[in-house]
Amino acid sequence: MRAAFLVLLVLAFALSLPVGCAGAEFAENGSESHTTDGGGSDGCVSKTCTAVGADCGEVLDGCGGVLACGECPSGQTCGGGGTNRCGSGSCAMLSCADLGANCGKLPDGCGSIMDCGSCASGQACVTDGSSFECQCLPKTCIQLGVECGLTDDGCGTTINCGTCDAPYTCGGSGDPKHCGCTTFNCSDVGANCGTIPDGCGGTVPCGDCSNGETCGAGGVNKCGVGTCTPQTCASLGAECGVLSDGCSSALDCGTCTLPKTCGGGGVANKCGCTPKTCAELGVSCGSQSDGCGGTVECGTCVAPNTCGGGGTQGRCGCTAKTCEQLGATCGAISDGCGGTLNCGVCPTGQSCGATHACGGSTCTRKTCTELNANCGSPSDACGGMLSCGTCTAPQTCGGGGVAYRCGCVPRTCSQIGLCGDQPDGCGGVAHCSCPINQVCATNGVCLGIVDECGPCLGLCCEGVCCSPGLGCCSGVCNNTC
How large a percentage of the chain has pLDDT more than 90? Predict the structure, then answer.
């Protein structure tokens, strides 16, 4: 997906629309207060001025609101001692243009919050480390409420939401986005006696024979004169589920032990499990459980994001740091998430060194070339920030795993969630195969080969309904499994 090379800001400071806490209100005396519309709680825990190391000006509370952290004593300015810190030094305010920001609420470095614009519904403010732009925010299958099949992620990309375990099929109950099953009755299969499987794991009684006739002697679940030898689960090669014995009864062949399910591996009446893809799990990074006892690798994040860094497991994000957390007492320094912190100025006669601490020696500033940086805004090692350029798509700053270097990490087949030849997001092609017992359709979806038999009293064998009493052996209906 296009989100594979964007850094999704799960940061409160980069979002112009409220996330979590909405309708913030502030106290007149500068102490922080936060309520939701109507005074209720919306589940978001607001940060405090103390928690973010601010003693003056405005800061974002992490829930879409703004905290008022008070004013400085006479003779001091907010930002003079660092971002939102009182001090005797001066403070140079940043602008939205300085940050390359066309969206988001961002600190200006001197105690105020800049509104750099909002994004349309369905979009989020994202950064590649050197600019902030509105981009479409793709949704997962879970967010869309889609259980199976193909669907649009809301941003024009088709995602695969998986297949269903037999006897269920995608759209089987009439809803094309959910797994379901439609039962059949006695007349659907021409049965006039005994008990038949209903095609969805249950059974249907079809009556009794009269005049001395035997159920099954006239055909499967049909009255007639003579005898009928019923099959067993073992003779049919069935491990689970309900199917006909070829005469008059429905065989219950048992259930499976989780994580295996009946038909879950793509073979009817066999226990199995089909591992989930990253797209089906709704995650974009890290090592995740595949639902079958194994793991699936869902890739890495584009710097400065890390997997779970924004607080959501399996999703790329970033949590900005403060000057105090970084141990910086002077100069401009990256907050670790694409923003810039102003950590104050040094007294006369001192300079801000490579560790962002004041000292008596002269500091020699680094260049982009010396830092091997070709994008983003790294520190110049003397309290300032460099502007080392931007990247050309599909590359992003840090996208190859090296900070301040343009790069791109190709998406894996598990991340793409489709089969066949698919674009890898970096200008190449990924060759993606299907699990065993599934085939790749022209639309890039892996389809089970045992799903579409319609009303079938026997085994469904690679799309063919076997006559009751026959097993499915190597993809062929026969009685010599």
Answer: 13
